């Protein structure tokens, strides 16, 4: 997809996201959007496109680090539930509790029993959340084997992208089919009527981003809320003084550009 066409469509969708934002605030909706998928599937870029024109106080991105020793002793889902939205919030999980069904299982960070128990209980926990009024959207970005390799190689060679490449990523790269099996087991157990998975092919990043945003807008019913027209008041001249004089004693950043 050409950049010009992509940016034109993205702008239209981002305007609608602003309307959705006002609706969520006004009606105190609680929304969770989960982004999962293979490494280098384009989750970060999609989340950036989704959130770059809206308020971070409404669209809150949650990307939890590895659990601390204290968190490891808690219930597995506890630190995720702490991030659930209040009324008027959309929480976007850049990876989520489904780590247990993916990287933790494949890389041996949890036991087979822990993995089995998660797949058994996860649909029940999600049912409780949905029954409590949370709108739960689960998205899986699926990138092809060849495209994933191209993206990994680009990260290796580009200093602006190398921060995206961790030792865990390179280790995971060689386990394509292990992740495929883990993915299919996860779908089998957790693709439920109350919390279904929706898949997006992401070999074309631009189309994937547009399709994700369009799906979110379609999934959450909303209407445009008329906003009162804003009119700037006149600035008062009372107490007028040379407010730039005091700044002349301060040290400014060197103007190199």
From TrEMBL:
InterPro entries referenced in this protein's UniProt entry, alphabetically = P-loop_NTPase, Polyphosphate_phosphotransfera, PPK2-related, PPK2_PA0141
GO biological process terms held by the UniProt record: ATP biosynthetic process
- The keyword Transferase belongs to this UniProt entry's keyword annotation: yes
Top enzyme class, one word, equals transferase
Superkingdom as given in the UniProt entry: Bacteria
One example of the protein's molecular function in GO is: polyphosphate kinase activity
Question: What's its catalytic activity?
Answer: [phosphate](n) + ATP = [phosphate](n+1) + ADP
Q: Which Pfam families match?
A: PPK2 (PF03976)
The UniProt record lists the EC number as 2.7.4.-
| Keyword annotations from UniProtKB, A to Z | ATP synthesis, Kinase, Transferase
Polyphosphate kinase-2-related domain ranges (all copies): 2-225
Q: Which protein family is it in?
A: Belongs to the polyphosphate kinase 2 (PPK2) family. Class I subfamily.
Q: How does it assemble?
A: Homotetramer.
Protein task: Uses inorganic polyphosphate (polyP) as a donor to convert GDP to GTP or ADP to ATP.
| UniProt name for this protein | ADP/GDP-polyphosphate phosphotransferase
The organism's taxonomy opens as:
Bacteria, Pseudomonadati, Pseudomonadota, Alphaproteobacteria, Hyphomicrobiales
């Amino acid at each position: 997809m050409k950049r010009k066409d992509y940016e034109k469509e993205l702008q239209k969708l981002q305007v609608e996201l602003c309307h959705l934002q006002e609706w969520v605030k006004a009606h105190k909706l609680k929304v969770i959007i989960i982004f999962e998928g293979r490494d280098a599937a384009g989750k970060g870029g999609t989340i950036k496109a989704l959130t770059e024109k809206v308020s971070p106080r409404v669209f809150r991105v949650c990307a939890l680090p590895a659990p601390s020793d204290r968190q490891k002793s808690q219930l597995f889902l506890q630190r995720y539930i702490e991030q659930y939205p209040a009324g008027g919030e959309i929480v976007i999980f850049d990876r989520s509790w489904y780590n247990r069904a993916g990287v933790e299982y494949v890389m041996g960070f949890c036991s087979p029993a822990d993995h089995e128990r998660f797949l058994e209980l996860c649909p029940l926990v999600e049912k409780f959340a949905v029954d409590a009024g949370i709108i739960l959207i689960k998205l899986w970005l699926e990138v092809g084997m060849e495209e994933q390799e191209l993206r990994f190689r680009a990260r290796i060679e580009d200093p602006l992208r190398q921060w995206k490449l961790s030792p865990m990523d390179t280790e995971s790269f060689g386990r394509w089919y292990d992740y495929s099996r883990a993915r299919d087991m996860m779908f089998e157990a957790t693709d439920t009527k109350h919390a279904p998975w929706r898949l997006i092919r992401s070999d074309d990043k631009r189309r994937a981003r547009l399709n994700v945003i369009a799906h979110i807008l379609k999934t959450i019913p909303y209407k445009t809320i008329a906003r009162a027209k804003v009119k700037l008041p006149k600035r008062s001249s009372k107490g007028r003084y040379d407010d730039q004089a005091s700044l002349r004693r301060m040290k400014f950043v060197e103007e190199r550009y």
